[in-house]
Structures are given as structure tokens and as C-alpha cells.
Amino acid sequence: MANSAQARKRARQAAKARLHNQSQRSEFRTAVKKVLKAIEAGDKAAAAETFKASVSNIDRLADKGAYHKNKAARHKSRLAAAIKAMA
After folding, report:
1. Does 2 have pLDDT greater than 90?
2. Which domains does the chain have, with CATH numbers?
3. Where is this region: Disordered (predicted)?
């Protein structure tokens, strides 16, 4: 347990940041899932449109530090390849 005023404040700040980061990570996962769902539906045009919207979301979260830039790039690359591979 935090004993000093400084430690108590840092604990409050950490709890607030954790909740914010948690919602940001959820937003990232939702963006990826939307694209995967569009790919599974088989509509390439809809998948490409969803991908375009999700990319800006994924990049924004990577810029904020919610995810590492390489992780964001890996997800974007795999989603793009999946869309490209659609018949």
C-alpha cells in the first residue's frame, strides 16, 4: 500500500491510465475483428473499406503507445494480405 502522498497520487494516476489503456486496446482488437468479419463474409469491397477505416484507428493507437508500432504494422500487413488473397 502507498504510504506517501506522492505514492498515493502515482497509484491513482496508474489506475486511471490502466483504464484508459484498456479501452484503447479494446478499440484496437475491435478494429481488427471488424476486418476479419468482413473477410469471412467474402465481400472484398466491404473488407477493403473496413480495412481502410481500421488502419487509421490502428495507426493512431500505435502512435499513442497503446501498442508497439511493429505490432500494429504486423496486424495491418496480415489483414492486407488476407484481403488481397480473397478471390
Report:
1. no
2. 5-84 (1.20.58.110)
3. 1-27
